[in-house]
């Protein structure tokens, strides 16, 4: 199971030990223990952690080690390995990852979706001769974290298609972390989370206040999305079905090169021949995947399959 959607800022920077008081009595991790745990985390999550992340691993896993009454990180590793049910592996993932996400993250991406990709898909899928409005569009938000990207997409689609319920548009959000998927599915966010990229007019239009300091997604927006746990390190994505649009942003930059190449090969296998792939604005598939070619619209880059001549498979 890869770290998908949560490691954003904290995994990209080591935390200095000097920030802690000298009286910190947290269990310390040895270099050997870090190496063993880092190898395990990469196997389970796809994320490659170098020694600069030693402090991060120590601080994130020490509480779990204490809960399990482990006297060392080696003992924690042994207990996780021995847990055939995978419960402890899930706790490792939840502990090591960070819920770092925004509403409408990267304005150029959402301008690209609103003015280029979604109109083209709607035209091709819903304007077929003799069968107007009877097609379908399937969108996958990979590593969706707690759901902000999914609901941002849903808002854009609703505003493009006021009578959206007449159309078969499905958005799937997946993440490795069960905790994240549970939160995304519930669709409730604290006030400070709503202030991270969500315009006030959309807040008023698509959310209802609850408990004085939180907001919940309105039912009509929630109905547009489905959430499920999914591992980007799975050998195949075939069980997800096929997609017209895949967003896999700011995730693969943390993968080892070979895992990154495998990820985009699997995405290519489930993308419709005329479909679209969007990755992070600072990412590139150069040297990673030969299946895709980059294309530009205004200030944004998107990817399509090089060979678009194969018959379009059924949308499930």
Quick overview:
This protein is α/β, with parallel strands linked by helices and 316 residues long. It has helices at 31-45, 54-67, 73-82, 87-96, 107-126, 148-160, 178-186, 191-194, 200-206, 219-222, 257-270; strands spanning 136-141, 168-175, 188-190, 207-210, 214-217, 225-229, 243-247, 271-278, 292-297, 300-305. The protein folds into 2 domains: 10-96, Chemotaxis Receptor Methyltransferase Cher, domain 1; 107-305, 3-Layer(aba) Sandwich (Rossmann fold), CATH 3.40.50.150.
Q: CATH superfamily name of the largest domain?
A: Vaccinia Virus protein VP39
- Assigned CATH architecture of the largest domain: 3-Layer(aba) Sandwich
Mean pLDDT rating: 87
Shape: globular
Question: What structural class is derived from the secondary structure elements?
Answer: alpha/beta
Using DSSP, what is the number of strands?
10
In DSSP terms (H or I, runs of 4 or more residues), the helix count works out at: 11
| Share of helix, binned | 25-40%
**Side-by-side strand order of the widest sheet:** 6-2-1-7-8
Query: What is the CATH domain class of the largest domain?
Result: Alpha Beta
Span of the ends, CA to CA:
24 Å
How does the major sheet shape up?
Answer: 5 strands, parallel
What string, H for helix and E for strand, traces the elements in order? Answer: HHHHHEHEHEHHEEHEEHEEE
Provide the β-strand percentage band: 15-25%
Uncertain segments: 5-23, 310-316
The radius of gyration computed from the alpha-carbon positions, rounded to a whole number of angstroms, is 21 Å
Overall number of domains: 2
CATH topology name of the largest domain, in short, is: Rossmann fold
């Amino acid at each position: 199971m890869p770290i998908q959607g949560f490691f954003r800022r904290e995994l990209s920077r080591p935390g200095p030990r000097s920030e802690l008081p000298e009286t910190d009595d947290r269990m310390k991790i040895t270099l050997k223990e870090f190496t063993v745990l880092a190898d395990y985390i990469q196997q389970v999550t796809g994320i490659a952690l170098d020694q600069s992340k030693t402090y991060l691993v120590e601080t994130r896993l020490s509480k779990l080690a204490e809960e399990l009454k482990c006297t060392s990180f080696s003992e924690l590793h042994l207990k996780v390995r021995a847990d055939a049910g995978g419960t402890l592996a899930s706790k490792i993932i939840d502990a090591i990852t960070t819920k770092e996400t925004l509403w409408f993250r990267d304005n150029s991406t959402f301008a690209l979706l609103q003015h280029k990709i979604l109109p083209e898909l709607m035209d091709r899928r819903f304007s077929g001769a003799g069968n107007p409005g009877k097609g379908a569009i399937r969108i996958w938000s990979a590593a969706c974290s707690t759901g902000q990207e999914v609901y941002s997409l849903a808002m854009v689609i609703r505003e493009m298609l006021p009578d959206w319920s007449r159309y078969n548009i499905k958005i799937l959000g997946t993440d490795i972390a069960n905790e994240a998927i549970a939160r995304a599915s519930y669709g409730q966010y604290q006030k400070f989370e709503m202030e991270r990229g969500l315009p006030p007019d959309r807040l008023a239009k698509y959310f209802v206040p609850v408990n004085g300091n939180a907001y919940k997604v309105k039912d009509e927006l929630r109905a547009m999305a489905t959430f499920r746990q999914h591992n980007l390190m799975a050998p195949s994505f075939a069980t997800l079905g096929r997609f017209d649009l895949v967003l896999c942003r700011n995730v693969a930059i943390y993968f080892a090169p070979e895992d990154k190449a495998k990820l985009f090969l699997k995405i290519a296998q489930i993308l419709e021949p005329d479909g679209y792939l969007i990755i992070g604005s600072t990412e590139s598939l150069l040297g990673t995947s030969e299946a895709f070619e980059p294309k530009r619209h205004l200030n944004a880059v998107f990817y399509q399959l090089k060979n678009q001549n194969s018959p379009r498979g059924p949308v499930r």
